Structures are given as C-alpha cells and as structure tokens.
Amino acid sequence: MIKVGIVGGTGYTGVELLRILVNHPDVSLEVITSRSEDGLRVDEMFPNLRGHTDLKFSVPDAKTLGDCDVVFFATPHGVAHALAEEVLNAGARVIDLSADFRIADADEWEKWYKQPHGARELLPEAVYGLPEVNREQIKTARLIAVPGCYPTSVQLGFIPLLEKGLLEPQMLIADCKSAVSGAGRGASVGTLLCESSESMNAYAVAGHRHLPEIRQGLSRAAGGKAIELTFVPHLTPMIRGIHSTLYARIPNLDVDLQALFEARYADEPFVDVMPAGSHPATRSVKGSNTCRLAIHYHKDTGQLIILSVIDNLVKGASGQAVQNMNIMFGLDEDAGLRQVALMP
Ligand SMILES: NC(=O)C1=CN([C@@H]2O[C@H](COP(=O)(O)OP(=O)(O)OC[C@H]3O[C@@H](n4cnc5c(N)ncnc54)[C@H](OP(=O)(O)O)[C@@H]3O)[C@@H](O)[C@H]2O)C=CC1
Ligand SMILES: CC(=O)N[C@@H](CCC(=O)OP(=O)(O)O)C(=O)O
C-alpha cells in the first residue's frame, strides 16, 4: 500500500482528494493536515466521508509527512515552497496542486503571483504533471506540479495541433468559463450564492495568472515557439466544471482534424474525443477525471473551434493529482479514478 499524506485537508481540492483516495485500492491514508481544525475528525467536517475514514486533522509536521510515500499539497500558493523541501528530504515524494512549481522561470512566477519564489532550487527537478504530455518524466519524478484547471482544459485542446505544426504562433483565443468552486472554499463575497447565481461575468481580463502557465505549455508543444494567446476567464453559476471554447484560424487545411485528435488521444484513458460537431457539456464530466473534446472546423472560412470540458476539481486538480500518483508508483493509471460522471 502507498502511504499518503495530504497538507491542506479542508479546502475543496483536499476533500476531493479524500473522496477519490478513500476508494483507491492501493492507498493507505496516513495524515491529513489543517492548522485551524487540529484534532477534528475529518468526517465531522465532511459528512460525505462518514463510514469511509477515521482520520483526524493534525497540524503539518515534516517528520510525520516525510514518513509517507507521497504527500499531496492542496494549499494556497507559497505553502509548498516553504514545506516541500523538508518533506522531500525526509523521503516522501511530493505532488503539489498549487501553482508553486508550475512555471519554470521563477522571475516570471514572481511577476504573476506577486510574492517571492520560496524554492528556486527545487524548480529544475519539478515535473509539470500533465500526463498526456509528460508521462515518462512523471514516472521517476520526486516533485510534481499539478497543472491548473484552466491550463489543463486549454492545453489538451490546442496541443495536438501545435505538436503537428498546424498552428503558427498566431493569435489563439481561449474563452473559458469556470464554476465557482474554482475560487476555493475560503469564498470571497463574489462567490456567495447571492452574488454568483443568476449572473455571469468575465474577470482578470487584463491578465490572469494562468496565462503564463498556458503559454509555457503551448510553447513547449510548438517546439519552443512563442505563443500569442488571448485568455479570458469567466465566472459562471455552476458548482463544478470548466468549459473552454478555443479559437484559431487555419486556412486551406487539408488534414482530417478529427482523425488527428482521435489518433493523438487514442491511448489516453482520460481524454475523450467526441464525434465531429459535438457540443460537450460540463455535466458530462462532473465528478469524473475525463476531459471531453469536440472539434469544429469550417473549411470555407478556415475557422477552427475546439470545445473542451473538464471538472475543475477532478481533471482540473485532485483527479489529475491522483493520476500522477498512479503513474509515479507504477499503479494502474485509472486506479481510484473510474467514476462515471453524475447525471443529471
Ligand atoms: N479549486 C479549484 O478548482 C482548484 C484549486 N487549485 C489549487 O489547489 C490549492 C488548494 O485550493 P482549495 O482546495 O481551493 O483550498 P483552500 O484555499 O480553500 O484551502 C487551503 C487549505 O490549505 C491549508 N493551508 C492554508 N495555509 C496553510 C499553511 N500556511 N500551511 C499549511 N496549510 C495551509 C488550509 O488549512 P489550515 O489553514 O486549517 O491549515 C486549507 O485546508 C490552491 O493552490 C488552488 O489554487 C488548483 C486547481 C483547481
Ligand atoms: C473561478 C476561479 O476563481 N478560479 C480560479 C482558478 C482556479 C485555481 O485555483 O487555480 P490555481 O490552482 O492556479 O490557483 C482563479 O481564477 O483564480
């Protein structure tokens, strides 16, 4: 059994990790931390876990965490910078759900996250945990940076085209809608029911911190070419889900894009390329680790539209984190992740 610790058990990604891991056949949950809820039974805070775990929250302690085989950080930015090295040195592998190790350039990270990078020395060994791109490096990694939710949905949609050199680093557009849970459990006023239901708004139009992460991933797929991307996130009145509508223009294309996407993801357990012309709904992935894609190409105008949906808390965070763990420990990649999406 893989001994697992979780730092930050009271947020949405923490409780989603628990929901997945209590049914994982190869995992023994050892530690779950919360400084504010120290001593409280986990199932007192989250009744959905009654009957599934006897764990209590405890304060983070590097020695106890280091005794685990792997430690997930489901914490705000900066926490893994401060704690990861000690946990790694104590012998555990680390899977970080925050943005602390996602951007390879520490100066760029500081520009977007507006705080000093607290662990520059660890950056060279951090592996960006998008299995559809980095599966081989993930197998041997000690430190995984789990991609952000928007970056997961956008990269999976554009990457097959960039890898084949079909998109010049022209102006790409990602028009993305997120559920409110993406803002975390420490909700600000803007995410209260009265504020966010029956309404929708764009935000961070001047520049969202996921922009450099998306550009980095797309540029790598394009063999290092710089990417021009317009990325506009929106808050929508849903609990879970991200819907990304991706736009590009490829005039006079003589390639069967549907076949290209189907071939690129044929062996991927968590990417579903739907029949041409489909309109995937976020509901079709709610609670599951799947990304569903649909390709729409208008030959007469050269307009390409790709639709990409994920559950922000599963493929966009905790499910993808567990997928990484499965790869790192040589387990079945879909162990603990076989949930079918909830309908309706
Ligand atoms: N929500 C989403 O859809 C997605 C979220 N993420 C990322 O996952 C991470 C967690 O987000 P979310 O689940 O919303 O969590 P929250 O921000 O709601 O919760 C944070 C958790 O971290 C703990 N924590 C906070 N500060 C510290 C600290 N200094 N040391 C140790 N523990 C600390 C808190 O417990 P306590 O303070 O009691 O110790 C709490 O359990 C974030 O980095 C977020 O950006 C990534 C992708 C998607
Ligand atoms: C709806 C909403 O507020 N979404 C969050 C993104 C989700 C997230 O937490 O991303 P990180 O893991 O990179 O922090 C936001 O826009 O900041």
From TrEMBL:
Pathway given in the UniProt record: Amino-acid biosynthesis; L-arginine biosynthesis; N(2)-acetyl-L-ornithine from L-glutamate: step 3/4
Every Semialdehyde dehydrogenase NAD-binding domain range: 3-141
Alphabetized UniProt keyword annotations: Amino-acid biosynthesis, Arginine biosynthesis, Cytoplasm, NADP, Oxidoreductase
Catalytic activity: N-acetyl-L-glutamate 5-semialdehyde + phosphate + NADP(+) = N-acetyl-L-glutamyl 5-phosphate + NADPH + H(+)
Described function: Catalyzes the NADPH-dependent reduction of N-acetyl-5-glutamyl phosphate to yield N-acetyl-L-glutamate 5-semialdehyde.
Keyword Cytoplasm: yes
Classification via InterPro entries: AGPR (IPR050085), AGPR_AS (IPR023013), AGPR_dimerisation_dom (IPR058924), AGPR_type-1 (IPR000706), NAD(P)-bd_dom_sf (IPR036291), Semialdehyde_DH_NAD-bd (IPR000534)
NCBIfam families recorded: argC
Active site: 149
EC code(s) of this entry: 1.2.1.38
Descriptive protein name: N-acetyl-gamma-glutamyl-phosphate reductase
GO BP: L-arginine biosynthetic process
Family indicated by similarity: Belongs to the NAGSA dehydrogenase family. Type 1 subfamily.
Lineage: Bacteria, Pseudomonadati, Pseudomonadota, Gammaproteobacteria, Oceanospirillales
Pfam families linked: Semialdhyde_dh, Semialdhyde_dhC_1
PANTHER family for this protein: N-ACETYL-GAMMA-GLUTAMYL-PHOSPHATE REDUCTASE, CHLOROPLASTIC-RELATED, N-ACETYL-GAMMA-GLUTAMYL-PHOSPHATE REDUCTASE, CHLOROPLASTIC-RELATED-RELATED
One example GO MF annotation: N-acetyl-gamma-glutamyl-phosphate reductase activity
Localization of this protein: Cytoplasm
Any single Gene Ontology cellular-component annotation: cytoplasm
